[in-house]
Amino acid sequence: MNRRIVVGDIHGCSRTFQRLLEERIKLEKGDTLILTGDYIDRGPDSRAVIDYILRLQHESYDLVTLMGNHEYLLLHSQGSIEYYKLWMLNSGFTTLSDFGIDESLHHGPDAINRIPEVYMGFFRELSYFAETPGYFISHACFEGRTSNPLDDLQSMIWKRDEYYNEAFLNGRKLIHGHTPEPMELIRGRIMDPATRIFNVDGGCVYPKRPGLGYLCAFDLDSHEFFALKNCE
């Protein structure tokens, strides 16, 4: 049976990501892999994360890649020094370093323009949300105080408040990342059938913080939960 699997925020943890897919999940080409965004920044090798995703796509794996706030900041840094400064405050310099770009020598658009086009094209093509039977998936939360949350793209990459519009969800659940939570809390919420909205960001890039440091995934069909400790 083909599976639908959602994976939380990766943040440059390329080895952990690869091991989760190949050794724990054992991803197959018939599966659909949905990634919640934030592939870059903070961790040890953001470029390697994107390289691995591009390789899977090239090998005809079915991937749905969503936009995270870190990818959003990178893209908007190309035309705005204010966004660039905000991206640097959110560890954007680690991603530049992974691309061999010295932030002390190259700033703003000059730095972004040195990222190869194949990667910039990947970032530009990211989706803000995914819809699959029974579920919505986004990087952050939907704006629950509007009749059509799909019109509010900013909330999908920034919002942490889990207030939701039950009439809009109409029996579906919303899965998101963006806010690191302890792995056991994530597991408990996922396994509770009453949960309508839940997070799959186990804070993989924060292995020294209590309860965090796990890359988490959830099988939408079998309800199997996967969590792999950061192995960078």
What is the fold-level CATH name, i.e. the topology?
Purple Acid Phosphatase, chain A, domain 2
Number of helices: 10
* Shape verdict: globular
Beta content comes to 15-25%
Average the pLDDT over all residues and give the rounded result. Answer: 96
Radius of gyration: 17 Å
Residue share in helices?
A: 25-40%
User: CATH-wise, what's the superfamily?
Assistant: Metallo-dependent phosphatases
Number of strand segments: 9
Instruction: Going across the biggest sheet, name each strand in turn.
Output: 3-2-1-8-9
Main β sheet profile = 5 strands, mixed
Structural class: alpha/beta
Oligomer: single chain
Tell me the distance between the termini.
32 Å
The CATH first-level class comes to Alpha Beta
Low-confidence stretches: none
Order of secondary-structure elements: EHEHEHHHHHEEHHEHEEE
Number of domains: 1
Architecture, according to CATH? Answer: 4-Layer Sandwich
Describe this structure in words.
The protein is of the alpha/beta class and about 230 residues long. The protein has one domain: Purple Acid Phosphatase, chain A, domain 2. Helix content is about 35%, strand content about 15%. The chain contains ten helices and nine strands. The chain has helices at about 15-25, 45-60, 70-75, 80-90, 90-100, 110, 115-125, 155-160, 165-170, 185-190; strands at about 5, 30-35, 60-65, 130, 135-140, 175, 195-200, 215-220, 225-230. The strands form two sheets. The protein has a five-stranded mixed sheet with strand order 3-2-1-8-9, with helices on both faces. A four-stranded mixed sheet has the order 4-5-6-7. Strand 2 (about 30-35), helix 2 (about 45-60) and strand 3 (about 60-65) form a beta-alpha-beta unit. Helix 3 (about 70-75) packs antiparallel against helix 4. The mean pLDDT is about 95.
